[in-house]
Protein backbone atom coordinates (compact mmCIF):
# COMPACT_ATOMS: atom_id res chain seq x y z
CA UNK A 1 0.00 0.00 0.00
CA UNK A 2 1.12 3.58 -0.65
CA UNK A 3 -0.24 6.28 1.65
CA UNK A 4 0.21 9.91 0.63
CA UNK A 5 0.71 12.71 3.15
CA UNK A 6 -2.32 14.43 1.67
CA UNK A 7 -4.51 13.92 -1.42
CA UNK A 8 -6.58 16.96 -2.37
CA UNK A 9 -8.17 15.26 -5.36
CA UNK A 10 -10.13 12.87 -3.11
CA UNK A 11 -11.91 15.84 -1.54
CA UNK A 12 -12.66 17.36 -4.94
CA UNK A 13 -14.19 14.08 -6.09
CA UNK A 14 -16.63 14.17 -3.17
CA UNK A 15 -17.54 17.85 -3.67
CA UNK A 16 -17.22 18.00 -7.46
CA UNK A 17 -20.75 19.29 -8.16
CA UNK A 18 -20.68 22.03 -5.51
CA UNK A 19 -17.22 23.21 -6.51
CA UNK A 20 -17.83 23.13 -10.26
CA UNK A 21 -21.02 25.13 -9.70
CA UNK A 22 -19.14 27.69 -7.55
CA UNK A 23 -16.45 28.15 -10.19
CA UNK A 24 -19.00 28.44 -12.99
CA UNK A 25 -20.93 31.08 -11.02
CA UNK A 26 -17.85 33.29 -10.77
CA UNK A 27 -16.72 32.82 -14.35
CA UNK A 28 -20.21 33.64 -15.64
CA UNK A 29 -20.46 36.70 -13.37
CA UNK A 30 -17.33 38.23 -14.86
CA UNK A 31 -16.30 39.55 -11.41
CA UNK A 32 -13.00 38.15 -10.31
CA UNK A 33 -11.73 40.61 -7.70
CA UNK A 34 -13.81 41.44 -4.63
CA UNK A 35 -17.57 41.46 -5.12
CA UNK A 36 -20.36 39.36 -3.65
CA UNK A 37 -18.48 36.04 -3.32
CA UNK A 38 -15.74 37.60 -1.20
CA UNK A 39 -18.22 39.63 0.87
CA UNK A 40 -20.41 36.59 1.51
CA UNK A 41 -17.42 34.45 2.51
CA UNK A 42 -16.27 37.19 4.90
CA UNK A 43 -19.71 37.19 6.55
CA UNK A 44 -19.88 33.41 6.69
CA UNK A 45 -16.42 32.99 8.21
CA UNK A 46 -17.09 35.79 10.75
CA UNK A 47 -20.30 34.05 11.79
CA UNK A 48 -18.61 30.64 11.96
CA UNK A 49 -15.85 31.94 14.22
CA UNK A 50 -18.05 34.22 16.32
CA UNK A 51 -16.43 37.54 15.40
CA UNK A 52 -17.88 40.73 13.99
CA UNK A 53 -15.60 41.23 10.99
CA UNK A 54 -13.51 39.17 8.60
CA UNK A 55 -11.35 40.67 5.87
CA UNK A 56 -10.24 38.47 2.97
CA UNK A 57 -6.61 38.85 1.89
CA UNK A 58 -4.24 37.12 -0.52
CA UNK A 59 -2.61 34.61 1.88
CA UNK A 60 -2.02 33.70 5.50
CA UNK A 61 1.33 35.46 5.31
CA UNK A 62 -0.40 38.65 4.17
CA UNK A 63 -3.00 38.24 6.94
CA UNK A 64 -0.16 38.41 9.49
CA UNK A 65 1.70 41.15 7.64
CA UNK A 66 -1.35 43.39 7.22
CA UNK A 67 -2.41 42.75 10.84
CA UNK A 68 0.90 44.00 12.17
CA UNK A 69 0.81 46.89 9.68
CA UNK A 70 -2.68 47.83 10.90
CA UNK A 71 -1.37 47.90 14.48
CA UNK A 72 1.42 50.25 13.40
CA UNK A 73 4.31 47.84 13.98
CA UNK A 74 7.55 49.24 12.61
CA UNK A 75 11.22 49.94 13.32
CA UNK A 76 12.02 50.00 17.04
CA UNK A 77 9.14 47.67 17.95
CA UNK A 78 9.43 44.12 19.22
CA UNK A 79 6.98 41.31 18.56
CA UNK A 80 7.04 38.29 20.85
CA UNK A 81 6.40 34.95 19.18
CA UNK A 82 7.50 31.31 19.00
CA UNK A 83 10.59 29.94 17.26
CA UNK A 84 8.72 26.71 16.44
CA UNK A 85 6.35 27.68 13.64
CA UNK A 86 6.22 28.20 9.89
CA UNK A 87 8.60 31.01 8.95
CA UNK A 88 5.83 33.44 7.94
CA UNK A 89 4.94 34.18 11.57
CA UNK A 90 8.29 35.88 12.20
CA UNK A 91 9.11 36.89 8.64
CA UNK A 92 6.42 39.55 8.53
CA UNK A 93 7.78 41.14 11.72
CA UNK A 94 11.18 41.50 10.08
CA UNK A 95 9.63 42.77 6.82
CA UNK A 96 8.09 45.66 8.78
CA UNK A 97 11.49 46.55 10.22
CA UNK A 98 10.55 45.33 13.71
CA UNK A 99 12.31 42.67 15.75
CA UNK A 100 10.98 39.15 16.36
CA UNK A 101 11.62 38.08 19.97
CA UNK A 102 11.26 34.36 20.56
CA UNK A 103 10.14 32.43 23.64
CA UNK A 104 10.52 28.68 24.03
CA UNK A 105 7.63 26.26 23.59
CA UNK A 106 5.64 24.05 25.93
CA UNK A 107 7.05 20.50 25.56
CA UNK A 108 3.55 19.00 25.48
CA UNK A 109 1.65 21.30 23.09
CA UNK A 110 4.63 22.60 21.03
CA UNK A 111 2.93 26.01 21.26
CA UNK A 112 4.43 29.09 22.95
CA UNK A 113 5.09 28.41 26.66
CA UNK A 114 2.81 30.87 28.48
CA UNK A 115 5.11 30.83 31.51
CA UNK A 116 7.97 32.24 29.44
CA UNK A 117 6.17 35.10 27.73
CA UNK A 118 6.52 37.78 30.37
CA UNK A 119 10.30 37.54 30.61
CA UNK A 120 10.49 38.34 26.86
CA UNK A 121 8.50 41.57 27.22
CA UNK A 122 10.48 44.85 27.14
CA UNK A 123 9.39 48.50 26.88
CA UNK A 124 9.68 48.07 23.09
CA UNK A 125 7.23 45.15 22.88
CA UNK A 126 4.08 46.01 20.96
CA UNK A 127 2.44 42.72 20.03
CA UNK A 128 2.40 39.06 21.04
CA UNK A 129 1.75 36.57 18.22
CA UNK A 130 0.86 33.13 19.61
CA UNK A 131 0.50 30.32 17.06
CA UNK A 132 -2.14 27.59 17.37
CA UNK A 133 0.30 25.02 16.06
CA UNK A 134 -0.77 21.85 14.22
CA UNK A 135 -4.43 22.66 15.02
CA UNK A 136 -4.21 22.88 18.80
CA UNK A 137 -5.09 26.17 20.53
CA UNK A 138 -2.28 27.81 22.49
CA UNK A 139 -2.97 28.11 26.24
CA UNK A 140 -4.53 31.52 25.78
CA UNK A 141 -5.61 32.87 29.20
CA UNK A 142 -2.16 33.25 30.79
CA UNK A 143 -0.82 34.92 27.61
CA UNK A 144 -3.76 37.31 27.59
CA UNK A 145 -3.03 38.23 31.22
CA UNK A 146 0.53 39.20 30.28
CA UNK A 147 -0.76 41.22 27.31
CA UNK A 148 -3.24 43.07 29.51
CA UNK A 149 -0.64 43.78 32.21
CA UNK A 150 1.71 45.34 29.65
CA UNK A 151 -0.92 46.85 27.36
CA UNK A 152 0.08 44.77 24.33
CA UNK A 153 -1.85 43.71 21.24
CA UNK A 154 -2.55 40.02 20.63
CA UNK A 155 -2.54 38.67 17.08
CA UNK A 156 -3.42 34.99 16.69
CA UNK A 157 -1.69 32.96 14.02
CA UNK A 158 -4.58 30.58 13.42
CA UNK A 159 -3.37 29.46 9.98
CA UNK A 160 -3.42 25.80 11.06
CA UNK A 161 -6.38 25.85 13.42
CA UNK A 162 -9.68 26.84 11.84
CA UNK A 163 -12.48 25.36 13.97
CA UNK A 164 -10.32 24.58 17.03
CA UNK A 165 -11.76 25.70 20.36
CA UNK A 166 -10.25 27.09 23.54
CA UNK A 167 -12.68 26.88 26.45
CA UNK A 168 -15.64 27.00 24.07
CA UNK A 169 -14.33 29.89 21.95
CA UNK A 170 -13.00 29.37 18.46
CA UNK A 171 -9.41 30.27 17.62
CA UNK A 172 -9.18 33.57 15.74
CA UNK A 173 -11.91 35.00 17.98
CA UNK A 174 -9.63 35.34 21.02
CA UNK A 175 -7.19 38.16 20.19
CA UNK A 176 -7.41 41.70 18.81
CA UNK A 177 -6.82 40.16 15.39
CA UNK A 178 -6.87 36.59 14.09
CA UNK A 179 -5.09 35.32 10.97
CA UNK A 180 -6.25 32.45 8.77
CA UNK A 181 -4.57 30.77 5.82
CA UNK A 182 -6.50 29.07 3.04
CA UNK A 183 -3.40 27.46 1.49
CA UNK A 184 -4.72 24.37 -0.38
CA UNK A 185 -3.51 21.84 2.21
CA UNK A 186 -5.01 23.69 5.19
CA UNK A 187 -8.10 22.25 6.93
CA UNK A 188 -10.12 24.77 4.91
CA UNK A 189 -8.11 25.09 1.71
CA UNK A 190 -8.65 27.11 -1.46
CA UNK A 191 -7.44 26.17 -4.95
CA UNK A 192 -4.62 28.66 -4.71
CA UNK A 193 -3.47 31.14 -2.06
CA UNK A 194 -5.86 32.92 0.25
CA UNK A 195 -6.13 34.25 3.79
CA UNK A 196 -8.32 36.24 6.14
CA UNK A 197 -8.04 38.54 9.15
CA UNK A 198 -10.73 38.44 11.82
CA UNK A 199 -11.56 41.01 14.49
CA UNK A 200 -14.31 42.54 16.63
CA UNK A 201 -12.81 46.00 16.22
CA UNK A 202 -14.56 48.07 13.50
CA UNK A 203 -11.65 50.49 13.11
CA UNK A 204 -9.08 47.74 12.63
CA UNK A 205 -11.38 45.98 10.16
CA UNK A 206 -11.75 49.19 8.17
CA UNK A 207 -8.00 49.83 8.23
CA UNK A 208 -7.33 46.30 6.97
CA UNK A 209 -9.79 46.78 4.11
CA UNK A 210 -7.98 49.96 3.15
CA UNK A 211 -4.49 48.44 3.47
CA UNK A 212 -5.36 45.46 1.26
CA UNK A 213 -6.33 47.79 -1.62
CA UNK A 214 -3.31 50.10 -1.84
CA UNK A 215 -4.39 52.20 1.12
CA UNK A 216 -7.44 53.44 -0.76
CA UNK A 217 -11.11 53.37 0.11
CA UNK A 218 -12.09 55.55 -2.77
CA UNK A 219 -10.44 54.67 -6.07
CA UNK A 220 -7.16 56.56 -6.68
CA UNK A 221 -7.38 58.37 -3.33
CA UNK A 222 -4.66 56.80 -1.16
CA UNK A 223 -4.93 57.53 2.56
CA UNK A 224 -2.30 55.01 3.63
CA UNK A 225 0.63 53.17 2.10
CA UNK A 226 -0.89 49.75 1.55
CA UNK A 227 -0.50 46.92 -0.90
CA UNK A 228 -2.39 44.63 -3.26
CA UNK A 229 -3.56 41.76 -1.10
CA UNK A 230 -7.01 40.69 -2.17
CA UNK A 231 -8.75 37.36 -1.91
CA UNK A 232 -10.00 36.63 -5.41
CA UNK A 233 -13.60 35.69 -6.14
CA UNK A 234 -12.82 32.21 -7.50
CA UNK A 235 -11.06 31.27 -4.26
CA UNK A 236 -13.88 32.78 -2.21
CA UNK A 237 -16.48 30.77 -4.13
CA UNK A 238 -14.54 27.51 -3.67
CA UNK A 239 -14.13 28.27 0.04
CA UNK A 240 -17.87 28.98 0.39
CA UNK A 241 -18.59 25.55 -1.07
CA UNK A 242 -16.23 23.97 1.45
CA UNK A 243 -17.00 25.96 4.64
CA UNK A 244 -20.22 24.04 5.51
CA UNK A 245 -18.11 20.84 5.64
CA UNK A 246 -15.34 22.08 7.94
CA UNK A 247 -16.78 20.79 11.23
CA UNK A 248 -17.38 17.33 9.73
CA UNK A 249 -13.86 17.26 8.28
CA UNK A 250 -12.33 18.33 11.58
CA UNK A 251 -14.35 15.63 13.35
CA UNK A 252 -12.99 13.02 10.94
CA UNK A 253 -9.46 14.29 11.61
CA UNK A 254 -10.06 13.75 15.34
CA UNK A 255 -11.35 10.25 14.60
CA UNK A 256 -8.19 9.45 12.63
CA UNK A 257 -6.04 10.89 15.42
CA UNK A 258 -7.84 8.68 17.96
CA UNK A 259 -7.10 5.61 15.81
CA UNK A 260 -3.41 6.54 15.61
CA UNK A 261 -3.36 7.23 19.38
CA UNK A 262 -4.86 3.82 20.10
CA UNK A 263 -2.28 1.87 18.09
CA UNK A 264 0.72 3.98 19.17
CA UNK A 265 -0.10 4.61 22.81
CA UNK A 266 2.04 1.86 24.33
CA UNK A 267 5.24 2.64 22.43
CA UNK A 268 7.94 4.06 24.67
CA UNK A 269 9.80 5.55 21.72
CA UNK A 270 6.84 7.46 20.24
CA UNK A 271 5.11 10.44 21.88
CA UNK A 272 1.62 11.00 20.48
CA UNK A 273 0.01 14.48 20.41
CA UNK A 274 -1.22 15.88 23.70
CA UNK A 275 -4.58 17.67 23.80
CA UNK A 276 -5.05 20.41 26.37
CA UNK A 277 -8.06 20.15 28.67
CA UNK A 278 -11.07 22.25 27.63
CA UNK A 279 -9.71 22.46 24.08
CA UNK A 280 -10.53 20.84 20.78
CA UNK A 281 -7.66 19.99 18.46
CA UNK A 282 -8.33 20.02 14.72
CA UNK A 283 -5.21 18.03 13.78
CA UNK A 284 -3.99 20.06 10.86
CA UNK A 285 -1.04 17.78 11.50
CA UNK A 286 -0.79 14.59 13.51
CA UNK A 287 2.78 15.06 14.69
CA UNK A 288 4.56 12.57 16.92
CA UNK A 289 7.95 12.77 18.58
CA UNK A 290 10.27 9.90 17.77
CA UNK A 291 13.94 9.28 18.50
CA UNK A 292 16.16 8.65 15.45
CA UNK A 293 13.48 10.38 13.45
CA UNK A 294 15.32 10.43 10.12
CA UNK A 295 15.94 6.67 10.17
CA UNK A 296 12.30 5.98 11.13
CA UNK A 297 11.18 8.27 8.35
CA UNK A 298 13.36 6.42 5.84
CA UNK A 299 11.86 3.07 6.91
CA UNK A 300 8.34 4.45 6.56
CA UNK A 301 9.13 5.75 3.07
CA UNK A 302 10.35 2.27 2.12
CA UNK A 303 7.02 0.87 3.30
CA UNK A 304 5.16 3.40 1.12
CA UNK A 305 4.18 5.83 3.88
CA UNK A 306 4.78 9.52 3.16
CA UNK A 307 5.65 11.70 6.16
CA UNK A 308 6.83 15.26 6.72
CA UNK A 309 8.96 17.16 9.21
CA UNK A 310 7.26 20.23 10.62
CA UNK A 311 9.72 21.84 11.27
CA UNK A 312 13.36 20.71 11.06
CA UNK A 313 15.08 24.00 12.03
CA UNK A 314 13.62 26.36 14.65
CA UNK A 315 13.47 29.95 13.48
CA UNK A 316 16.13 31.29 15.86
CA UNK A 317 18.67 29.00 14.14
CA UNK A 318 17.64 29.86 10.57
CA UNK A 319 20.20 31.73 8.50
CA UNK A 320 17.64 34.43 7.67
CA UNK A 321 17.38 35.31 11.37
CA UNK A 322 21.07 35.04 12.23
CA UNK A 323 21.21 38.84 12.59
CA UNK A 324 18.99 38.54 15.67
CA UNK A 325 21.97 37.05 17.53
CA UNK A 326 20.36 33.89 18.91
CA UNK A 327 22.45 30.75 19.29
CA UNK A 328 22.00 27.02 19.76
CA UNK A 329 20.80 26.28 23.29
CA UNK A 330 18.68 29.44 23.59
CA UNK A 331 15.39 27.52 23.20
CA UNK A 332 16.17 23.93 24.17
CA UNK A 333 12.62 22.61 23.95
CA UNK A 334 12.09 23.93 20.42
CA UNK A 335 15.50 22.54 19.44
CA UNK A 336 14.81 19.05 20.81
CA UNK A 337 11.31 18.93 19.33
CA UNK A 338 12.69 20.01 15.91
CA UNK A 339 14.98 16.96 15.96
CA UNK A 340 12.19 14.52 16.84
CA UNK A 341 8.99 15.68 15.11
CA UNK A 342 7.42 13.52 12.45
CA UNK A 343 4.04 14.26 10.86
CA UNK A 344 1.97 11.28 9.69
CA UNK A 345 -0.62 11.40 6.90
CA UNK A 346 -3.87 13.00 8.08
CA UNK A 347 -6.73 14.31 5.96
CA UNK A 348 -10.47 13.63 6.20
CA UNK A 349 -10.61 11.28 3.21
CA UNK A 350 -7.91 8.95 4.56
CA UNK A 351 -9.45 5.48 4.96
CA UNK A 352 -9.41 3.47 8.19
CA UNK A 353 -7.30 0.84 6.41
CA UNK A 354 -4.72 3.45 5.45
CA UNK A 355 -4.62 4.79 9.02
CA UNK A 356 -4.04 1.31 10.40
CA UNK A 357 -1.39 0.62 7.75
CA UNK A 358 0.52 3.81 8.64
CA UNK A 359 0.38 3.16 12.39
CA UNK A 360 1.44 -0.47 12.04
CA UNK A 361 4.35 0.47 9.79
CA UNK A 362 5.43 3.03 12.40
CA UNK A 363 5.31 0.36 15.10
CA UNK A 364 7.62 -1.77 12.92
CA UNK A 365 9.87 1.14 12.01
CA UNK A 366 10.65 1.96 15.63
CA UNK A 367 11.46 -1.71 16.14
CA UNK A 368 8.83 -2.44 18.71
C1 LIG B 1 1.54 28.77 11.26
C2 LIG B 1 1.46 29.39 9.90
N1 LIG B 1 1.49 30.72 9.78
C3 LIG B 1 1.40 31.33 8.59
C4 LIG B 1 1.28 30.61 7.43
C5 LIG B 1 1.27 31.34 6.13
O1 LIG B 1 0.15 31.09 5.36
P1 LIG B 1 0.19 31.16 3.76
O2 LIG B 1 0.94 29.97 3.29
O3 LIG B 1 -1.25 31.14 3.38
O4 LIG B 1 0.85 32.44 3.39
C6 LIG B 1 1.21 29.23 7.50
C7 LIG B 1 1.00 28.41 6.28
O5 LIG B 1 1.74 27.88 5.60
C8 LIG B 1 1.33 28.59 8.75
O6 LIG B 1 1.32 27.26 8.86
Structure characteristics:
single chain; 368 residues; alpha/beta; Aspartate Aminotransferase, domain 2; Aspartate Aminotransferase, domain 1; 2 domains; seven-stranded mixed sheet; three-stranded antiparallel sheet; 11 helices; 15 strands; 38% helix; globular; binds pyridoxal-5'-phosphate
What does this structure look like?
The protein is an alpha/beta fold and 368 residues long. The protein has two domains: 8-103 and 110-244, 3-Layer(aba) Sandwich (Aspartate Aminotransferase, domain 2); 246-365, Alpha-Beta Complex (Aspartate Aminotransferase, domain 1), CATH 3.90.1150. 38% of the residues lie in helices and 15% in strands. It contains eleven helices and 15 strands. It has helices at 8-29, 36-49, 60-70, 88-95, 140-150, 202-212, 233-242, 246-264, 293-302, 332-340, 352-365, and strands at 53-57, 78-81, 99-102, 125-129, 153-157, 165-166, 169-170, 177-181, 195-199, 216-218, 221-222, 270-271, 279-280, 286-290, 341-344. The strands form four sheets. A seven-stranded mixed β-sheet has the order 1-9-8-5-4-2-3, with helices on both faces. The protein has a three-stranded antiparallel β-sheet with strand order 7-6-13, with no helix packed on it. Strand 6 and strand 7 form a beta hairpin. Helix 2 runs parallel beside helix 7 (233-242), helix 3 (60-70) crosses helix 6 and helix 9 packs across helix 11 (352-365). It is globular and about 65 Å long. Bound molecules: pyridoxal-5'-phosphate. Residues 59-61, 85-86, 88-89, 131, 157, 159-160, 181, 183, 193, 195 line the site of pyridoxal-5'-phosphate.
Amino acid sequence: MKVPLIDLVRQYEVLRDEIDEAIRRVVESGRFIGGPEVESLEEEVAEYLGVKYAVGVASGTDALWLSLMALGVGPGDEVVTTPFTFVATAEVVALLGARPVFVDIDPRTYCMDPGKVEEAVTPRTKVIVPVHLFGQPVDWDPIEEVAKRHDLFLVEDGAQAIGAEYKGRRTCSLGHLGCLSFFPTKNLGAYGDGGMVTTDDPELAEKLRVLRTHGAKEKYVHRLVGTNSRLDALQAAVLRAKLPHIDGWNERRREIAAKYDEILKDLDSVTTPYVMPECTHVYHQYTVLVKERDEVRRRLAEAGVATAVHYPIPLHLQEAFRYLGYKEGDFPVAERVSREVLSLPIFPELSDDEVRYVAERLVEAVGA
